[in-house]
């Protein structure tokens, strides 16, 4: 069975792909809007991990709607959740995709889909949505990451990642300058995967 | 890293062990109170799956407390959750155990631990608690089961399983007869694993 894993180049989506690898044919998929070269970066990371990779570009209106949400809210939660859900729906609408996975962990607050949203996507598109890390806490994930990956960690403003936040931050910088980004996004530690450890 | 998977001989705990196998040293552990020979049955199933297995027997007072709960409630939910949590705590108190897993799926209602209970167990005992199927819906689990296991399915009263329900039902039969069991437990489909499919 093939599975398409939403891939940001970070440790959670990379580890998810590794956990699925013995049981599925894994492809990594990165969602972007061509504001920054995140697709190219994700592609390089995917190659180092040893997985096939492709980029998808949902309609630009999704990024614009997320921008409107974040500017109105003053915090990123709803906007990030909206892009995440839209990326999953975009993938699910691809007739060749039957399983979709992401790197959501047990303790993640954003992005996360509620049970009714998950059921709605599975029923409307006839796909399975799988979160391999949903039953793993932060400490267990960190142990597995240490064993399987070499990562680079840093503050979110210093690490270029192919996640939903990156291009949303860029759009806000372009329209309001970088001080606005600091107001809206809490600074937090991000990871970028450098290499996969040989077994 | 070693991981102890709570094992009932059913498809969910068996599949959980299979998903963890490439990444952990898996042992299967069955919790019972010696009312029925469920430990022996679980042991035979574990051998057919190819995993090491052991039985644990928590204090009998746990079964009695669960019995009191179920007789007072008139439904099994709280009693089953109580035995499940007690089994995890019993395993966690074993100094050689560092990771505990079970077969809880995304859509399971019983047994299930709440987030505060999970954090409390992880913090008090210094263990990781992992649910490999927590991010998988019923349909995705069924696909994986079909690929990896040969199972026998039937109504809960006809399938002998090494789960928490089995001995609780037996205790109620011994004290009140089998009509009382039918009043308290909804009849539902259970699975028992016969064999592992060769890859």
Descriptive labels:
homodimer, 199 residues, alpha/beta, 5-stranded parallel beta sheet, two-stranded antiparallel ribbon, 19% strand, globular
Walk me through what this model shows.
2 copies of one chain form a homodimer. Chain A has 199 residues and is of the alpha/beta class. Chain A has one domain (2-196): HUPs (Rossmann fold, 3-Layer(aba) Sandwich). Helices cover 47% and strands 19% of the residues of chain A. The first copy, chain A, is built from 8 helices and 7 strands, in the order βαβαβααβαβαβααβ. The first copy, chain A, has helices spanning 11-20, 38-49, 60-73, 77-92, 115-125, 138-148, 164-176, 178-184; strands at 2-6, 25-31, 53-56, 99-101, 128-130, 149-155, 189-196. Chain A has a 5-stranded parallel beta sheet with strand order 3-2-1-4-5, sandwiched between helices. In chain A, helix 3 packs antiparallel against helix 4 and helix 7 crosses helix 8 (178-184). The longest helix of chain A has 16 residues, at 77-92. Chain A is globular, with a radius of gyration of 16 Å. The two termini of chain A are 24 Å apart. The A-B interface holds A 1, 19, 22-23, 99, 104, 106, 115, 118, 122, 128-137, 139-140, 143-144, 147 and B 1, 19, 22-23, 99, 104, 106, 115, 118, 122, 128-137, 139-140, 143-144, 147.
